[in-house]
Here is the input.
Amino acid sequence: MTSRVALDTDQAHLLHPLHHPSAHAATRVWVSGDGALIKDSTGREYIDGLSGLWNVNVGHGRQELADAAREQMATLAFHSAYAGATNKPAIALAERLSALVYPSINTFFFTSGGAEASESSFKTARFYWKALGKPDKFKVISRHRAYHGLTLAAMSATGLPAFWPMFEPRTPGFLHIDAPDPYRFNNPDPNLSLGVAAANKLEEAILREGPDTVAAFIAEPVQGAGGVIVPPADYFARIRKICDQYAVLLIADDVITGFGRTGRWFGLEHYGVEPDIMQFAKGITSGYVPLGGIGVSDTIREVINGVPAGKRWMHAYTYSGHPTCCAVALRNIDILEREHLVERAAVAGARLLEKLRGLEAMDGVGHVRGQGLMAAVEVVADKATKQLFPAQVALTQKLTDALLERGLYTRVAMDCICLAPPLVTSDALIDRIVDTVRDTIPAVLSAAREQVNAL
Here is the structure.
């Protein structure tokens, strides 16, 4: 199938995520990958600056993961893991995770991805409070610029309004507070650190809604799709204290930040804080097969196990505990451990952030931030006021296209160039990523300012 035929067939038969034909006019057909590089159907090679979609942590082309899938498929491709049945890879993966994740979390439920993990977290929070005789505790507090998936309840938790309008009304019981953005958060109290002031927004929301109505607070340790927002160091300690004070469960969305992305196995390890529920996906299999899930604290597990059978945790997915996906996850964790890729993410991430910070003196670069191999360069129209370009300039798309033309595949969110290359990315490629961003910004700014002047 030629590229042109493939694209014609695609347009005739596929609906894509975030679909609109206008976004599909200059489509690339991706055909292969090797490490941190990907190749399109024309044979051109690109740096994968976003690890596919924040998920190909161990890099492309791992024969070992393909072999793990083949071996398991040849033995037992699939069988239900509903109560009364199980399989060895799911058992082994749950045991492996209990040794890797936050110490108080030792029990796991598997899904097919991150949005299903969010749904599972929300339902588990509701179940927990109902089982304890508090059915009015059902609300979930999230943050602006958060991303927790796009199924209906997950979309309602996601704090990116662009995803809402054509699917509203949203699920009731979800609300949002300000993100702890070190660049844009307006601290109302000069006597408080930015981190504590941002965390106090949670307390204000709980008190406004009524503590007896709030089930959980969900947060990414580092907000990914919202522009790689790294919270101040004291933010999550205050969040944990507030959740404990008002009997609110803390859900850590480690879908992007898990499995080494931030230079630690899981994101809240940076802050010495443990959640009540954690959710994961993406890096658990490095994207080779779909898998996600949640882990619950020992306290929550005891409540789940302690209800009468007629009030059981009546939650399920066909593919929960899929043996092939669990087998691939186990082998993926082997690679992360054997090749010390979590540690590599810390070292390579420090290099990436240091070099990106060298761009802050450039015209139009408002803020650079990152943690591990997650980073962002925020582009602004005016550095003094932090003002963004007008929406009609479409700077996000201009930056995306210009980076791709220069051989760097990544995403731009709200004029923030997001970077999250595979954990195997070499120093030479890290430097090329920074050089590409450095070359791209002035060219795009020049065109954008011409367009503004013409408005």
User: Anything to note?
Assistant: The first strand starts at residue 30 and ends at 34. The chain has two domains: 3-58+340-454, 64-338.
